[in-house]
Inverse folding.
């Protein structure tokens, strides 16, 4: 019996080549795209799953209330010490802080490599569970002069991953530091913490400098609680202790964030240096994956039922010969399973061919082997089962329900059931298409807004590079003086931090000296006298730093958000202090217009500039637009003169800001592409539906032509049914798209207006698809000879 069903299925598929081909194309495209998206979504949600006791692991952050309320990811070393020792429910705590420096193998300073690394407490590998290829997780960071590097870093430095016991030298400002490789870690791909190397928190240079201590007020703290302990209890105890500290103002509190949500849901926490995704974008891709699969199934249903009338006689004959409905259902369902399995095989081939393009869209490095490890086969099996049942069950029930007396008549074409259901499926397709197009246009508008918004300072011709090298760290003033004299340079500035990094190495609570109850957690930039001029920051009150004024070395220039947060009515007449109201007061000499140096996901926060006498690690150069090429060549030659042992590397500030939104841009491209796939599948579905409508109206069209109806009249008769459904779908889809668009934009503190453009674009594109898909077949039917439709009468 099964063999007979298989033969019948092959025979029917071969007989209806157009339907079979359309079904295979639609299902292959739908299965392959949905499969890739489902695996991608699964991968993103699985970030940090390897962390031991992940359900009990949390990230410490602070919340600030007031005019510029915000969440602050940085904590202080005292928090780490407090949590490590004074809470019965805390199993252990860990701290990390990111940095980058040049490293080179011992005795080979010409082979320098810039490496992104983290200072970390000695329990880093035990706490987070990062896999080590070589080394003991409990001991690799116990020696302050040790280092753990990833496998790829070991190969880049030493030409081999077998680097245990070898010495790598860290280039310092005043002296270098030799570190012994005690561990080789697997390259990090599935965590919010990305690193090329890990260095012990206690690492000390020969000069006695312990660099990690410079981050004592700006580090990241994690805790792991004992099973059964409520993190809310620890939060309450921590905040109770905070409330008892001298100078506490009540506008700051500690919170704990689940580590499993760090990658996708920590976007509203400021000063974060971690890899991150977007929960809303991932949910959108998951939605699109389901939609693509559902649309592909709807297409199959439409085409099978549209062509079902041709098989009505087969059903009638088989029923007369004794076949019961169950057998027919199994036959038709078997055909659906066969088509789906063939499509699944083609999907695997299509995925293999298109994987590199998918990686470019998503920024991942998936391989076929990686997808197999991520569960390709189980997910594929689930998709095949879902697709087979969803797409095959309804046609099987409809086609097997024909009565022999009706099925054997020529009028069987008019007796097909399910007209309302098919219109409903068509309506669903239109809603989906309108919705996806509108949401994609909204996301595109926001992406354009992110890249085009005025940030409040000049970022277009400003480059930045490090001057914390061995030679330049001592001679950067002479270097700066020479480049300032070059005609192509507008201004230059040395500073601790630059505006393109998104964060600074220093922040803390600042409060009014006269009224300590007024405080604001402030981002502090250590700068020189030319910083505001280099970045073209606009003063709205007061003046710039003056190198001739000795008092300016302890003065501040702040932004408007700082004034608003502290509620200062006369800022030039007040003094503020950092960390403690008893510290030395600093006078405000100027106020700059608010500017964005962080993602537009976040509100502008309080900022203060002060003159820094040390740790001026970065040089920013504002160049004239018409002389950029010549100026860059001059800077490179001047660099070679001052720093001959190291290559000149720089970055444009606008490129650094583009990096903020790189993940959003990639995901927007992915969403746009797969939305287009869904729209193409909808067009295939329309083709199936039009085929059915025209087949059902062949005699009506023939009679109308005989009675003198024009081709235009016939086209309108066929089109109006689809246009009415499209109009109703538009009414339903616009509020849905509007709500989804607002939800998407709520992730940004600053966003574009939605307007009517997204909905007009969606309607125009959908209308064009209808006119093209339906119109072509309607014209073909209108030109057909009516004798062919009426000759059976």
């Amino acid at each position: 019996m099964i063999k007979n069903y298989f033969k019948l299925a092959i025979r029917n598929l071969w007989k209806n080549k157009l339907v079979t081909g359309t079904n295979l194309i639609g299902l292959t495209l739908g299965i392959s795209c949905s499969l890739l998206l489902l695996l991608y979504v699964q991968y993103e949600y699985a970030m940090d799953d390897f962390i031991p006791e992940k359900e009990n692991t949390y990230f410490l952050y602070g919340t600030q209330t007031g005019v510029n309320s915000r969440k602050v990811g940085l904590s202080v070393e005292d928090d780490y010490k407090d949590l490590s020792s004074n809470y019965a429910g805390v199993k252990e705590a860990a701290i990390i802080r990111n940095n980058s420096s040049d490293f080179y193998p011992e005795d080979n300073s010409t082979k320098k490599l810039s490496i992104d690394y983290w200072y970390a407490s000695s329990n880093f590998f035990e706490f987070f569970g990062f896999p080590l290829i070589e080394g003991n997780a409990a001991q690799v960071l116990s020696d302050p002069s040790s280092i753990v590097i990833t496998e790829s870093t070991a190969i880049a430095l030493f030409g081999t991953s077998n680097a245990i016991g070898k010495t790598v030298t860290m280039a310092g400002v005043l002296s270098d530091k030799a570190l012994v490789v005690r561990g080789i870690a697997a390259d990090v791909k599935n965590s919010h913490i990305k690193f090329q190397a890990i260095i012990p928190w206690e690492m000390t240079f020969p000069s006695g400098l312990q660099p990690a201590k410079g981050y004592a007020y700006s580090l990241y703290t994690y805790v792991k609680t004992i099973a059964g302990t409520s993190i809310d209890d620890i939060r309450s105890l921590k905040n109770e202790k905070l409330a008892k500290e001298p100078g506490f103002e009540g506008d700051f509190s500690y919170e704990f964030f689940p580590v499993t949500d760090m990658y996708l849901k920590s976007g509203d926490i400021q000063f974060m240096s971690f890899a991150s995704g977007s929960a809303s974008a991932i949910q959108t891709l998951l939605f699109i994956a389901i939609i693509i699969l559902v649309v592909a199934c709807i297409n199959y249903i439409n085409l099978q039922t549209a062509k079902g009338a041709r098989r009505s006689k087969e059903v009638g004959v088989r029923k007369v010969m004794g076949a019961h409905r169950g057998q027919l259902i199994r036959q038709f369902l078997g055909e659906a399973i066969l088509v789906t399995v063939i499509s699944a095989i083609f999907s695997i081939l299509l995925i293999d061919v298109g994987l590199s393009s998918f990686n470019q869209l998503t920024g991942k490095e998936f391989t076929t082997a990686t997808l197999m490890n991520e569960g390709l086969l189980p997910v594929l099996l689930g998709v095949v089962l879902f697709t087979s049942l969803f797409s095959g069950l309804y046609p099987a029930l409809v086609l097997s329900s024909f009565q022999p007396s009706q099925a054997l008549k020529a009028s069987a074409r008019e007796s097909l059931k399910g007209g309302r259901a098919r219109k409903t499926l068509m309506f669903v397709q239109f809603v989906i298409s309108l919705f996806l197009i509108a949401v994609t246009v909204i996301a595109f508008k926001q992406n354009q807004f992110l890249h085009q918004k005025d940030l409040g300072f000049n970022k277009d011709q400003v480059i930045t590079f490090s001057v914390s090298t061995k030679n330049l760290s001592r001679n950067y003033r002479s270097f700066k003086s020479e480049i300032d004299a070059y005609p192509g340079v507008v201004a230059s500035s040395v500073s601790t931090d630059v505006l393109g990094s998104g964060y600074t190495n220093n922040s803390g609570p600042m409060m009014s000296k006269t009224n300590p109850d007024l405080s604001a957690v402030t981002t502090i930039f250590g700068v020189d006298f030319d910083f505001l001029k280099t970045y073209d920051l606009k003063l709205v009150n007061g003046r710039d730093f003056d190198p001739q004024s000795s008092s300016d070395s302890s003065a501040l220039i702040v932004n408007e958000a700082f004034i608003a947060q502290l509620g200062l009515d006369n800022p030039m007449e007040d003094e503020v202090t950092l960390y403690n109201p008893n510290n030395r007061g600093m006078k405000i000499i100027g106020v700059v217009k608010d500017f964005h140096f962080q993602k537009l996901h976040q509100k502008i926060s309080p900022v203060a500039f002060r003159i820094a006498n040390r740790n001026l690690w970065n040089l920013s150069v504002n160049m004239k637009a018409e002389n950029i090429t010549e100026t860059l060549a001059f800077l490179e030659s001047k660099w070679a003169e001052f720093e001959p042992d190291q290559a000149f590397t720089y970055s444009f500030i606008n490129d650094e800001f583009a990096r903020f939104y790189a993940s959003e841009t990639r995901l927007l491209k992915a969403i746009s592409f797969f939305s287009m796939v869904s729209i193409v599948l909808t067009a295939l579905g329309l083709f199936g539906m039009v085929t059915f409508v025209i087949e059902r109206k062949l005699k009506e069209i023939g009679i109308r032509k005989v009675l003198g109806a024009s081709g235009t009249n016939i086209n309108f008769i066929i089109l109006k049914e689809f246009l009415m459904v499209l109009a109703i779908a538009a009414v339903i889809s616009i509020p849905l798209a509007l709500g989804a668009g607002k939800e998407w934009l709520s992730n940004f503190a600053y966003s574009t207006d939605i307007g009517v453009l997204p909905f007009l674009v969606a309607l125009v594109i959908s209308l064009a698809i209808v006119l093209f898909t339906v119109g072509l077949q309607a014209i073909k039917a209108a030109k057909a000879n009516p004798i062919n439709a009426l000759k059976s009468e």
Remarks:
- The chain has 24 helices and 23 strands.
- The radius of gyration is 33 Å.
- The chain has four domains: 1-56+277-417, 92-224, 428-454+661-793, 462-660.
